[in-house]
Every structure is written in structure tokens, then in C-alpha cells.
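If it is no trouble, might I ask you for a protein's amino acid sequence along with its C-alpha cells?
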Amino acid sequence: MCLRAFIGACMLAACSGDGEPAQHGSMGAGPGGGSGAESKQEAGAGANASGSEAAAGAPEHGGTGSVATRSSNAGAGGSRTALAGAGANAAGTRASTAGAGAGTSAGSAAGSGGTTKAAFQCPPGPFGSPVPSGATVSRIAGMPPADAFNNNGNTRTNIEGAVWIGDKLYVSEFAFTAAPTSRILAVDPAHDSVSVALANTGTNGLAVDAAGVLFATDHRNGAVIRMSFPLGTPVVLAGSYDGKRFDSPNDLAVRSDGNIYFSDPDYQAPATKPQSRTRVYRLAPGTSTATVIDDNRAQPNGVTLSVDERTLYVSASDGIYKYSVQADGSISAGSGTRLNGYSGSADGLGVDCADNLYATAGKRIAVLSAQGNELASIPVSQAESVTNVAFGGPEHKTLFITSMGTGNQRGVFRIELDVPGLPY
């Protein structure tokens, strides 16, 4: 989920208000066996006869989901910046709205009439070790709310698609069934409060652009959608390939020029899968027809972009792959190469300002260099299986971690790091 523009807090003033099989937010069997990512094949869709998740390593959801938009010179390799207001650069330059292509002028705040805040940009560095000595993971209480949606907390659900917008974290919650209904929850970490931002949707991965527009993958309807704040009726950007609906779009990233990249595993697909293969797609700005980036990836899941937007990362059941992004956002079909230095599967992915990659799998997050070498490991022993990550907080140094499961094993966790990162 990437167009990583960090939207300023006031932008959302008006809206305050996946289980991947292999153990991970997108319900699908995870590739790296043994790492705990859940192979969550949906119980009614025939995955595991018992309905239990196969702890096969790769997360099932494609967490993917965090939405920050990268607002800098998309194809030219500019770094992603987070535009603070609902729409515009303080300088009044055009903010590309993925799918709509238009930018809003500076000063218009997210529909609430508020003033815009300065845009967040990754500091120049140099950066040291991302994980400080003694840093610990803690759980945000009350996430998710125990209510009718999850049978008062008794139904196992997946928390996915984390994205930091303004001063809140937005996530999807859904059960492990085929084409499940989801809801979007808003977490206010400063006040330890959780609210329902949208009660009835089909979202998994979430992302946001510089204009404050929310983009999402919709596994219930097999589509990529967008919504403006306050959240309401979605606009379908793409809902089919080769005349058939997508299986279960999982995660996405939005480039600052409006290109959208998304994964389509079959974790939450209908019992009769519409597509013959699981694929990675690109949706070019202003179009409604998706083109295939890769149809040779088993259960593609997490999707993210490097800080300069020249590299696309996709996790799958057999590892993490990277693709070179051209100036216009295009990617040569089937050009992905496996990231050396990391073995096993992963679910959701995130990136910090040093271009380190954060890969979720099982009960930990692997922090990898751009070359794939493991720099650090963040254990999340309280979680059943972590599904996605997003950076947020006042300095974007808080890493928020989503997890599937029941009770206190699911929800949102956080840890304070030394390197800031992107909002989804």
C-alpha cells in the first residue's frame, strides 16, 4: 500500500470519528513453513478441513495495507513525502490523486476547513540501527472492540492494512471466511481510543494519497476501490481481469504519480475461484484496466515501494521479490527477482526512511536491508501472527504492528524505533 505521502493530522478532522492463509493477514497459506505465518485458508472455502490455519509461514493477508502517499516526483525518483493537509502541498503544487489524476491546491484541508500542516519528509540521514537497544513491544488496549462484529471478541479475526493518516492509524478487521465483510477501525494512540470509521465494507489493504483519498483492496467484491473522508460509498477503480472479478485483492501501494500496484492471492476468494492464477497487477493512472506484472507468484501478498519509488517489493509464499519501476510507473512483466538474504514467506511489508524493509511473518518482524540482509529482528511474542506494519506518530518513528487471532493475541502493537518510516 504505498503512495507514501504522509497526510497531516488536520486532514482527517472530519473523519475522526486478511487473514492470509499462511498465518497472516491475508488468508492464505504462507510460504515459509515454520515461521508461523498462517496459512489461513478460509474455513468454509475448503482450506483446512478443520478450519484451523495452517501455520505455514507466509501470512495470508497481504497486509498491505498502510496508506501513505508518496508525493515526490514519482517517476523521477523523488522521495515520498507526506503532504499534511487534505489535499495539497503547502507550496500549492499539484498533488496527484491516484486514479483521478488531479491535484488540489494548497491550503485545502481534508474537507473539514482546517488549516494544513507542514509536509512530512524523510530526513536526509545518515541513519543508524533502526531498533534501539531495550526497545519493547506493547499492545494497544481495546483493539479491536469486542462487539457484535466479532461475537464479543470470541470470533477469530484478522487485523490488517495498517495506514497512518493525520494523527490516527486505520486498519481493517475481518473474519476468516470466503469473501468476508470487513470494517475499518481508527486507532488514536495519543488517547488510547478506538472507534469504527466504516462499519460495513470489504477492505483488506489500505493506502492513502497526497490529497487524503483512501485506497483499498476489497476482497468481498474482488476490486480495488477509493473513498474520500468522511468514509462512505466507495468508487470502484478496477474490478475484473479477463472478464472475471479478481479473486481476493490483498494489498496495494500507490505511487505519487497515481500508479497503483496490488496483489491478488486467493485466500479470501469465493469457493469457485474466478481467476486461474494468483497475480500481481498494475493499474495505471486514469485507467480501469489492470495489467499483469507477474502471474508466476504463488499467493502474492504484501506490496510496498522503496522510498524513491523505483523498486516495488512483493511478498509471496516462497519469499520476497523486487521489481524495477520505470519512470512512467510501468514494470516489465515477469521481471521480479527474489530478494537474497531472506528465506521463507512473509505477509505485510513496510519501509523506513533508510530504505530498510520490514517483513512480517509469524511472531516477528524481520528488518532487512535493501539487499535483503537481515539487520534486526523484532519479536512480537504476544501475537498469534503478525500481519502488517505502518510507521506513524509525531515523528513517524512509532512502528505499528497488526496481528490476527483471538483475545489479546490479535490487535495492534507498537514499538518506538530510531529511524522514521513511511505510513503504510
Observations:
- The two ends are 6 Å apart (CA to CA).
